[in-house]
Write a structure and sequence with these properties.
single chain, 150 residues, alpha+beta, Arc Repressor Mutant, subunit A, Dna Ligase, domain 1, 2 domains, 3-stranded mixed β-sheet, two-stranded antiparallel ribbon, 5 strands
Length: 150
């Protein structure tokens, strides 16, 4: 996908969700769109601070939260408890495998939502209203690299 097409898609996605397509918001999406790995708010801010002389880290955090709440980007919760963000183009219901070494994010088409709902209903008579499933580990490349250093 060409950069202009990608920016048009971002612009339309923001407009459809009644979010302003500000230059900073579009730039954040552009940074995330060029990666197949998750990024921290600080990494995104560092990439943008030369282009926008008046962009603070709180602005980046606020925009990332707005975009995440509206499911334009995905939030990644790292085992170190730091939040990272990733632009996922897959709009179907799915979850992610996160490589904690190289930060690569892969879609996984397994959910188990129905089984979880049944278990919650059966065991605690509760009702599930949402769920988050994130699988952390090492991708094939990092597993091979790690194995060769042992």
């Amino acid at each position: 996908m060409k950069l202009n097409d990608m920016e048009d898609d971002h612009f339309l996605a923001l407009k459809n969700l009644k979010l302003k397509a500000t230059p900073k918001r579009l730039a954040i999406l552009r940074v995330l769109a060029t990666e197949s790995a998750y990024l921290s708010p600080e990494e995104i801010w560092r990439r943008l601070k030369d282009r926008f002389k008046k962009i603070g880290l709180p602005t980046v955090y606020r925009n990332l939260e707005d975009l995440s709440e509206r499911n334009i980007i995905s939030k990644v919760i790292h085992p170190n408890r730091q939040l990272y963000y990733y632009l996922c183009r897959n709009r179907d219901h799915h979850h992610h495998f996160i490589c904690i070494s190289c930060h690569k994010v892969e879609d996984i088409n397994f959910c188990g939502e129905k089984e979880i709902e049944e278990e919650v209903t059966r065991k605690i008579q509760g009702q599930v209203i949402s769920h988050i499933l994130q699988v952390n580990g090492f991708c094939k490349k990092c597993t091979c690299r790690k194995g060769s250093h042992q």
